[in-house]
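Lab notebook, bench 4. Still working through the backlog of constructs that have no structural model yet. Next entry is a single chain of 151 residues. Request: give me the structure tokens for it.
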Amino acid sequence: MAISELAQLPQTALVAVSPLYRSTPLGPAGQPYYINAVAAIDTRLSPLALLDGLQAIERRHGRQRGAVRWGPRTLDLDLLLYGEAVIDEPRLTVPHAEMAQRGFVLRPLADIAPLLRLPNGETPQLLCEALPRSEMAGMWLVAAEEAGTCL
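Model written out:
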């Protein structure tokens, strides 16, 4: 549902969606597996307006920001990139600060844009290949029906 809501943001069009991946969660033990994907959009929204739109989608899906870092959540939408922009503001850092170390971000990003040049010149595919095997070990493809998603 969140993917279809991305396409409904004002001045925004959905361009591509990666396959869904199940991964071991970050943070406190005992959380259910996460379902991860990356979506590419074209938007005329400013970066902060887009962030506000993403957070509004999260709230509609029951997301409550709490004191537990990386704790359980119903939905987590991150703004990974905004064209070639480099943004360092109190509410937003783009490219996403930890993107290059996270297989659950790089693998789906590489699926839809393997040769995309990040602001540092790297590609998602090369960054993904450079990750330690342990970072990729807890990930596997998931059928949309299994994830409870209608694509």
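Notes after review: Strands lie at 12-17, 20-23, 34-36, 39-43, 87-88, 93-94, 139-142. The first helix runs from residue 2 to 7. Flag for follow-up if needed.
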